[in-house]
Every structure is written in structure tokens, then in C-alpha cells.
Specification:
Radius of gyration: 28 Å
Helix content: over 70%
Number of helices: 16
Oligomer: single chain
Number of strands: 3
Length: 398
């Protein structure tokens, strides 16, 4: 996500100057228009949010929405809930945010505008808040938003947990290779060179790699920097993100999990928007913005125009090729029964269950596979070292 600084005019004629987070300049302008702001200056900021700052922001928002939901569920008004949350908040960033929201609401702004003006919310969250205010269902709205943030955190934690053990094994293997390459090989190579004998093949390969890193360390470093810069550049442009997303979705098992998670997020967001009274056209566009993959997001954004052109929603969804046949059946059933939000909610729950099952299967296959590969690699290193030591004895005896 990129930060854009803007200056805009609201419907009441007041001037606004702040920043907004979006993928492209067009997305930023579209987001401002949804907030009731007409930008007359929009420029790319010089930096992007760091990953650590982004994680803090998401965690803080989850805590705030969760707290407000509990307080509203207890019967408090939104103003009283904000004051209560502020009185019990000990973290300074969250206190500053709550104070700013309280002041803005005291000046007459609704909650959605007050929080959107102080923190870069996803467009879908802002739309859900606005729809909840219009339908006077703020308790249910806060519950839904809290669930969205909690599910995102849980998915991230599940992925990290599944990759922790394989990553540890890979680090052990790389450490063993590093010790052999930069410690053992340099100490025994003079013996073979002095006797005019060739080293064992594996140790010879490691010796050549060690020489490469030692003699051309600047070139290796430069190549690594160039590769990282290319990846970063690809992430900054839509075409690059599209290629990376296509590569991720084409991976076996992992691509299936990513597609199921993405589809479940889209369906749940669309169900929430429609359930809170958002019209079908804006709901389709906003729900598409919640999809993390550029290729799927562009395909789903076309649904709005297709529906306005007279196509049925299920038929337009089928033409995108993004959702599977089972999910399409939920779209058709929801259209026929005029209960599309409920049907999409059930479809989202089904996809979440399938994604969890596929993720567990992927983890169950990945862990033993990495264990076997690491064991073979470390075993090969041990055998090669023992062979080398025996070869050293033979050289010494000669």
C-alpha cells in the first residue's frame, strides 16, 4: 500500500488536508470521493508504512473496535462508549486516536468520518461503518469489523506457525553448510594442495563457493541488492503485483489456500455491505477492494459494470472465473431466494473451512518434506566430512 497526500473540499465547503493509503492514485481518489471529499491536489508521499508500523496499526484498531463493541453491547451510546474506552486506555497512540475521534464527533462528525480522518482504514471498513450508521446497527457493525480483524490476525498467525518449524530446519541446514564452507574447508584445503591431491567432490564444490563469496563479495552483495530492488519495484506497480499474485496462486496447495482465503474475504465483505444496506453496485466495487490479489481484484471490479449492463450477478461472477462452482451455486440460490447476504455468509464459512483443511494438509506435507531434505543434506555433509578426514589421513601417510 502507498500513502498519498491530498487536499480536498468537502460538501459543506470546508478544506481538508491529510493523507490516504491506497494501491494507486486512482484508488486514492476513489476512496476520497466515497468519504464525501473532492480532491484538488493528490500526490504520492515519499515513503510507505513499515511492516512493523502496519502490524501495530491493525492490532490497535482491532482492540479499539472490540472494546467499543463490548461497550455498545452493554447498552452505552457511542459517545459514552468512546469516553469509557478513553478512560481505560493506557497506550498513548490509542489514547490520541480515541481523543481525536471524540473531539470530531463532538463537533458533529459521524464516527466513520471521525476515524477515517485520523487513520487509514480500508475502503471496505469505512463503507461498513457508514452503512452501519445509516441503518442504526452500530453494535452489529462493530462486531463484524472486530471479527474481520480477528480473522486476518488468526490467518497470519496460522501461516507463521505452519512455517516456523520448516524455517528453523532450513536455518540449521544453512548454518551447517556455512560452518563447513568457511571453517572446515579452509583448514583442510592446504593439506590437499600441498600433496597435489584433489579434494572430494562435495568439499571441492563448497571450497569453490567459499572462494566465490570471499573473492567477489562485492559482486554477490550487488546481485542480492539488485534482486531485492527488482522485487520491490514489482510490488510498487500494478503489473508487477499482478505477476507476483499469479505466481503465488499457481503454487500447488499453497495457491489453493490463498485463493480460498481471498474468496472467503470477498464473500464475507460483500455479505456485510449488502446486509447493512449498501446498494449492490457500490458493494461489489468495495468488496473487490478487499481482495489481496491484483488479478482477482481487477476481475471482480468488472462485476459492477456487468450487472449494470443487465447481466445476472451469478452469470457475471461465473464469467470472471475467480470463484468455484460450489460458490457460484450459493450466488444463484441467494438471487433466487432474495437472501443474497445470508447465502454469501454461508459460502464464506464453507470456504474458510476448506481453506483451513487445505492449510493443515499443506502443513502436514511441508514439515516432513523439509525434515527429510534437511536430514539428507546434513547427513550428506557429515558423510562428506568423514570422507574428507579419511582422505586427509591417506594423504598424510603418503
Amino acid at each position: 500500500m502507498t500513502i498519498f497526500r491530498f487536499q480536498a473540499i468537502a460538501a459543506d465547503g470546508t478544506l481538508h488536508q491529510d493523507s490516504v493509503e491506497a494501491d494507486t492514485e486512482e484508488d486514492a481518489a476513489r476512496l476520497l470521493m466515497r468519504r464525501g471529499l473532492k480532491p484538488y491536489r493528490l500526490e504520492h508521499a515519499a515513503h510507505t508504512k513499515s511492516a512493523m508500523r502496519e502490524r501495530w496499526r491493525v492490532a490497535a484498531l482491532e482492540r479499539i473496535f472490540s472494546t467499543l463493541h463490548v461497550l455498545l453491547q452493554a447498552g452505552l451510546t457511542i459517545d459514552t462508549a468512546l469516553r469509557t474506552a478513553l478512560a481505560n486506555e493506557r497506550r498513548k497512540p490509542e489514547r490520541d486516536l480515541l481523543e481525536g475521534i471524540s473531539r470530531a464527533m463532538a463537533a458533529g462528525q459521524p464516527f466513520s468520518a471521525a476515524i477515517s480522518g485520523r487513520v487509514a482504514l480500508p475502503a471496505t471498513i469505512t463503507a461498513i461503518l457508514t452503512a452501519g450508521e445509516a441503518s442504526a446497527r452500530m453494535t452489529e457493525t462493530f462486531a463484524a469489523i472486530t471479527e474481520i480483524y480477528a480473522e486476518r490476525r488468526q490467518r497470519r498467525d496460522d501461516i507463521l506457525s505452519a512455517l516456523l518449524y520448516p524455517a528453523t530446519l532450513l536455518l540449521v541446514m544453512l548454518a551447517a553448510l556455512g560452518i563447513v564452507t568457511f571453517v572446515l574447508v579452509p583448514s583442510i584445503r592446504p593439506i590437499f594442495e600441498g600433496a597435489g591431491q584433489p579434494m572430494p567432490m562435495f568439499i571441492g564444490i563448497l571450497s569453490a563457493l567459499g572462494d566465490l563469496f570471499s573473492d567477489y563479495d562485492w559482486a554477490v552483495t550487488l546481485i542480492a541488492i539488485v534482486m531485492l530492488a527488482l522485487v520491490y519495484a514489482m510490488l510498487r506497480v500494478p503489473s508487477g503485483r499482478r505477476r507476483l499474485s499469479q505466481a503465488a496462486l499457481s503454487l500447488p496447495l499453497l495457491g489453493t489456500v490463498l485463493r480460498q482465503r481471498s474468496s472467503a474475504t470477498y464473500l464475507k465483505t460483500l455479505a456485510l455491505l449488502l446486509g447493512n444496506g449498501v446498494a449492490l453496485g457500490p458493494a461489489l466495487e468495495l468488496a473487490a477492494d478487499a481482495v489481496p490479489f491484483e488479478t482477482d481484484r481487477q476481475a471482480l471490479r468488472s462485476l459492477r459494470d456487468a450487472v449494470f449492463a443487465g447481466q445476472s450477478l451469478s452469470g457475471a461472477v461465473e464469467k470472471t472465473g475467480v470463484l468455484d462452482a460450489v460458490t457460484l451455486s450459493f450466488f444463484k440460490a441467494g438471487e433466487q431466494s432474495n437472501q443474497l447476504p445470508d447465502a454469501l455468509t454461508r459460502a464464506s464459512a464453507l470456504l474458510d473451512a476448506q481453506a483451513k483443511q487445505t492449510s493443515e494438509r499443506f502443513s502436514a506435507l511441508l514439515t516432513p518434506a523439509v525434515t527429510i531434505v534437511t536430514g539428507l543434506a546434513v547427513g550428506g555433509i557429515v558423510v562428506s566430512v568423514m570422507d574428507t578426514l579419511l582422505s586427509v589421513n591417506d594423504v598424510a601417510l603418503r
